[in-house]
Each structure stands twice: as structure tokens, then as C-alpha cells.
Design brief:
4% of the residues lie in helices and 40% in strands. By secondary structure, the protein is mainly β. The chain folds into 2 domains: 8-23 and 357-459, Immunoglobulin-like (Sandwich); 55-353, Beta-galactosidase, Chain A, domain 5, CATH 2.70.98. Strand 26 (376-381) and strand 27 form a beta hairpin. The longest helix is centred in the last third of the chain and has 12 residues, at 342-353. The two termini are 29 Å apart.
């Protein structure tokens, strides 16, 4: 299908293209330039700024953060934050996400909460396990039998397919003999959105580090967990106490079956939303569990009074993680400044987990009447779907790819972003961007149709 429409002026770029609808929701962000972090491990690090979508990733000795413009989406802890006064130092921990923020900058997560100081933002651990005839609790640090912590940074990345990082965590026994039992790899990827919500994924791969298997026993909680803010704690006796909330704000859970805090506990669910009020205004964080996760739809532990939940496949019985059987799990996180909308969330889940309809998509980009050579172009589906990307050749032509083997794009509405800026590894600088932010950050709304799509961009500076 090839359709030409009228001229459309967007942010000082004159665009002639095949559009099925006028530009509506578009991306708008400022790019936050950050210096590259010197490393001694020899692993790759991201280019210091993003030219596509306004996302960037920055690393310090203590943390890795993903930003949209000047706003921080999330922070990963490489080293434990200082343990607050009055809390046992045993609760120090690394290898978790906190803070996780909403688009307006509200912090959704908590760390070192007074009621359960071992719960930290977005974290993972097992409670009841057996390793070589030893009982190890990796979740409850006060038991002093095991813990989980950051091990290494494998890479940070910042490209058209997403912005994020790849890290390893270690599950370690803390009594003699001390043994590194599991390696858990996290790939955390954030995607550009229209700014009304944040979207990021965690892919977790847990692999045995010895010939001895780890048996995860049947238990009522344990797995990939989320701890919400202290003000969402339903425990009036802690209000005003040292380290406690000054006041309690309303909060609850919601899952795909319409269940809340009590009825939803241990239900098998596709997604769970933790929501409440912050300074009298709504906020929510929803976790989608991938359809092919182990024992999906997984049981979810919803705590009766605390703002935390976890997806817990151990609720349905014990299982083994050994060298031949790693545990691979994928979760998507949606953060908004609104009450959870079940229809919108369900559409998100279907978009991520449902049957993917794709279509070949190619085209040509010109700038001031000439082919735009070596330009990066990406198509980001609505609702944080899987992006496709390409670079133009000497004739300015491109063919979108979902991966190296699949030349196609996801059918449906989304946004095109185009950039000419290239990072020079020698000078550690970006080349000058030829295109204005209308192309590089705000983008062009478009709908990919079934069948062959041809999308031609004729751009010119005004």
C-alpha cells in the first residue's frame, strides 16, 4: 500500500509521508548529556547521550540511572545505600531498582521501610530453598543464611531498540562454607513513550553456578517483587514513629480479574497494579507477567497490609534450578500518574504478549531534496511494543527490522523517529545533528498496515 497525503509541518521539518492519521500524540523530551563512565572491567558502555526519544543512561560508582530528559525513570543500585539510623546493618543490600519514578517525578518505590527493612524497590529473591542439604533464605536477611547482591555490569546501551543496562547479581550463602549458588542476569530496557507513562522491561535469567541444584521449595511468597512507598503502608501504629510515615495515604492493588488486596492474594494473574495517592493525586505502577513465564499465569502474593507484592511461581509447588534448567522470566513495568485503567492495561498486555502481527515496511528519506545517507530510523509501536529499526543506504532507502532475521515492523499505530547524529568512539563526541527535534525526539505518528508498507520522508529545513 502506497498513499501520499498533504504536506505537514512539524517542528520546522516539512514532511511528505504515507500517514494513515494526522500527527496526534508524539514524543517530546530533552536529551540529557552525560559523560561516559571510565570502566576497568572492559565491558561495553553506552554512548553518553541518546538522540532518539530523549532517553539516556548514566553510570556512577554506586548506581546506573535511566533518564528521560532531565527526569529520572529509575535507578539501579550497584552498592548498598547507607542504612538508616536505627536499622540493623544486616539489611544493607545492592542489586535492586530504587527510586522508580512517575512521569511527574513522584517516587513510587521505597527502600529500607521500617516495617520490612529487607524490601527494596524492585528486587528478586527466594525464601525457602534447599542447596546441598542446607536451608537458605535469600529473602529475609535477618535469618543470616543467604543474600542477593550486585556482582558486575556487563554493559549499558543506548540505541534505537531501547535504553538500558545488562547486570549480573549473585545469590550467595552467608554461613560457612560460603558458596555462590546462583547467577541472576538482569536486562533492563526502557522504551520511548508519549510521556504520559513510563515503560520498561526486566528480563531475568537465573542459572546455577555449581553442579548442585537449588531447590526452590513450595512457599507463599518469593520471586520478582515490588515494594511501594511508606505512605501506602496500612499500619496506623507506625504513623509518626521514627522512620515511619508522617501520614498514611490511600492505596490498593488491582489485577486482571478485578480483584484487590484480599481477594487477589495468590490468584493466578497476567498483571498486578499497585496504586494510591501521593500528595492527594493518583499514581500507579503495574507489572505485566509475560505469557511464557514459568507457570504462567503466575500466582501473585498481595500483602494484606503492606504496599508490596511479588509474582511467586513457588506458590504452586517446588521446582529446581540447575545448570541444565535455568529460570528465565520477563516482566514489563508501566508507571503512570493516574489510577489504573484495566482496559488500557489489558491492551498493553495483549500488545506485549499477544500474537504479533507484522508487516514489511520500507521507504526512502530525503533531506533538502537529496538522499539522507546513514540516518537512523526507528518505529516505536504505541504502548511500548517491540520497536523496529534501520539505517539508510546511499540512496536514502531503508527497510525496517525487528531483529537481524526479520525485516518487518509491528502492525498498528506508533511513532517514527529519525536522526543523523553519530557517536565517534575516538573523540567521544556526537556529530552534529542535521535534523531538528521534530524528527529526532517528537517524531511522526503513523500506522503500519497489514501487507507491504512504503513510507517516504521528504524532509527540509524551514
Amino acid at each position: 500500500m502506497i498513499v501520499k497525503i498533504n504536506e505537514l509541518i512539524i517542528s520546522s521539518v516539512l514532511l511528505f509521508a504515507t500517514f494513515s492519521q494526522p500527527a496526534a500524540q508524539t514524543l517530546s523530551a530533552q536529551t540529557a548529556a552525560q559523560p561516559a563512565t571510565p570502566t576497568e572491567d572492559g565491558n561495553p558502555r553506552a554512548e553518553p547521550t541518546s538522540t532518539l526519544g530523549g532517553l539516556s543512561v548514566g553510570e556512577t560508582q554506586q548506581t546506573i540511572s535511566i533518564q528521560r530528559g532531565e527526569s529520572t525513570l529509575l535507578t539501579y543500585t550497584k552498592q548498598s545505600p547507607p542504612v538508616p539510623t536505627g536499622i540493623d546493618p544486616i539489611y544493607a543490600r545492592s542489586g535492586f531498582l530504587h527510586p522508580v519514578n512517575s512521569p511527574t517525578g513522584k517516587t513510587i518505590t521505597a527502600t529500607f521501610p521500617i516495617d520490612h527493612a529487607h524490601q527494596h524497590g524492585i528486587f528478586a529473591a527466594w525464601v525457602k530453598t534447599t542447596y546441598s542439604d542446607r536451608q537458605i533464605d535469600f529473602w529475609n536477611l535477618a535469618e543470616r543464611t543467604g543474600r542477593v547482591g550486585h556482582k558486575r555490569v556487563n554493559a549499558t546501551f543506548n540505541h534505537v531498540a531501547g535504553t538500558g543496562f545488562d547486570v549480573d547479581l549473585i545469590y550467595e550463602s552467608t554461613t560457612e562454607p560460603i558458596v555462590e549458588v546462583l547467577n541472576e542476569n538482569w536486562k533492563v530496557v526502557a522504551y520511548p513513550t508519549d510521556g504520559s507513562f513510563y515503560c520498561f522491561d526486566i528480563e531475568s535469567q537465573q542459572r546455577a553456578l555449581t553442579d548442585q541444584p537449588l531447590v526452590v521449595e513450595k512457599y507463599h511468597y518469593g520471586g520478582m517483587a515490588l515494594r511501594g512507598r511508606m505512605e501506602w503502608l496500612h499500619a496506623e501504629k507506625l504513623v509518626g514513629a521514627a522512620g515511619g510515615p508522617k501520614e498514611v495515604e490511600p492505596s490498593d492493588f488491582l489485577n486482571d480479574q478485578g480483584s484487590g488486596r484480599e481477594q487477589g492474594n495468590h490468584q493466578h494473574t497476567k498483571w498486578v497494579s499497585l496504586h494510591g495517592e501521593i500528595d492527594g493525586k493518583p499514581a500507579s505502577i503495574t507489572v505485566l507477567s509475560q505469557a511464557d513465564n514459568f507457570r504462567a499465569p503466575q500466582a501473585a502474593r498481595l500483602h494484606p497490609t503492606k504496599p508490596y507484592f511479588c509474582f511467586s511461581p513457588c506458590v504452586d509447588g517446588s521446582f529446581v534450578i540447575d545448570r541444565a534448567h535455568p529460570l528465565i522470566s520477563r516482566y514489563r513495568y508501566l508507571v503512570t500518574d493516574a489510577e489504573p485503567d484495566p482496559q488500557w492495561i489489558e491492551k498493553q498486555w495483549q500488545n506485549w504478549c499477544g500474537e504479533q502481527s507484522i508487516a514489511p515496511t520500507k521507504g526512502t528519506i530525503t533531506f533538502n531534496g537529496k538522499p539522507l545517507v546513514a540516518a537512523n530510523i526507528a518505529f516505536y509501536p504505541e504502548l511500548g511494543g517491540r520497536p523496529s529499526y534501520a539505517s539508510t543506504d546511499e540512496q536514502g532507502q531503508f527497510s525496517l527490522k525487528l531483529d537481524e532475521q526479520t525485516e518487518a515492523a509491528k502492525v498498528g499505530s506508533g511513532t517514527f523517529l529519525i536522526s543523523t547524529s553519530i557517536y565517534d568512539e575516538t573523540t567521544q563526541e556526537w556529530s552534529e545533528e542535521l535534523l531538528p527535534k521534530g524528527a529526532t525526539e517528537e517524531g511522526f505518528s503513523y500506522e503500519i498496515s497489514p501487507g507491504q508498507n512504503v513510507v517516504d520522508f521528504n524532509l527540509s529545513a524551514q
